[in-house]
Amino acid sequence: MTEFFQSLGMSYEWAWGVATVSGILLITLPLLLAVAMIIYVDRKVWAAINLRRGPNVVGPFGLLQSFADGLKVFLQETIVPSAANKGIFLLAPIVTFTVALAAWAVIPFDAGVVLADVNVGLLYILAISSLSVYGVVMSGWASNSKYPFFSAMRAAAQMISYEVSIGFILICVVLWAGTFNLSDIVEAQRGHGFGIVNGYFFNLLLFPMWVVFFISSLAETQRVPFDLTEAESELVAGYQTEYSSMSFALFWLGEYANILLMCSLNTILFFGGWLPPVDWAPLYWVPGIVWFLLKTFFFFFMFSWVMATVPRYRYDQLMRLGWKVFLPMSLIFVVVISGYLMATGHYA
């Protein structure tokens, strides 16, 4: 894109700057539109599973319901509790929303279609996703209310617990791919299964790690059955209890942007990213970004399906699953996979 703007007569510095801003807008604006639409899809899936109709009044088939909700919160008054720390209280949703968008900088939508194709893209994702807990903790503490504070403590413990397992799972993927670059990880999955299947999900050693990664994704984004941070019967609305208007909406947008991020990571790390499911020439006629979006939407449907059907865990069950099941399991698979790769000569 920089070369295109240079061809228009711009200097390299101006062309690079305009290309970078254009790339950011090309990711951010469709992402915000996608967030609005997946909230609608989320509600429709829940409704269908519960034999209800869901949004069906605002716009054709209710498609404009999310935009109507957004306009409603935009016009509401922002109320800050008198005992709250106003600066941190207002900064918390901004931090949550900004961090959620920053992670998308290294996500490859197709071959070469990525804002920053850095060699340590996977480490960047791990680092950025771990920062999301700060917005939650800031909101819980600054609200000066016991329910948001309890929720923030739960969120911190929950995110740390499952990020440890996710870290070891990512090590397993890196061992197979031999790189931290997300685009190279996708290319390493081309024809991985008997020269036919594109993706690591076919691998009997990595398939259990995908299952753990998917469940950990639910916990990382605080989705059912791991939404202990927003347990209505215990914590009202959790860390969002004292928020209203656009400050509440920023939390909402950041949460769904994180959900889409985890769905895309499931696609990139285990299901071949922009590659078609099968390494068959006619399937490559479909643009790679279409395959990427279809796979991401499939995982989002699974997120919604789980939310509509699985009851909430108790907090002790959640922590036991993270520390006593997923952590030992992921550690064992790191040893097994590295041993297998060395035994078969994949390592020099």
Give the secondary structure arrangement, pairings included.
Blueprint: H1 2-7, H2 12-49, H3 65-75, H4 86-102, H5 121-142, H6 146-177, H7 182-187, H8 207-220, H9 232-235, H10 245-270, H11 288-309, H12 315-343
Helix pairs in contact: 2-10, 2-11, 3-10, 4-5, 4-10, 5-6, 6-8, 6-12, 8-10, 10-11
Structure write-up:
This protein has 348 residues and is mostly helical. The chain is 65% helix and 0% strand. The protein has 12 helices and no strands. Helix 5 runs antiparallel to helix 6, helix 6 runs antiparallel to helix 8 and helix 10 packs across helix 11. The protein is globular and about 65 Å long.
Question: Briefly, what is this?
Answer:
With 348 residues, this protein is mostly helical.
| Global structural class | mainly alpha
State the end-to-end distance.
38 Å
- Sum up the overall morphology in one term: globular
* Number of helical regions: 12
What proportion of the residues is helical, as a percent range? 55-70%
Give descriptors for this structure:
12 helices, 348 residues, mainly alpha
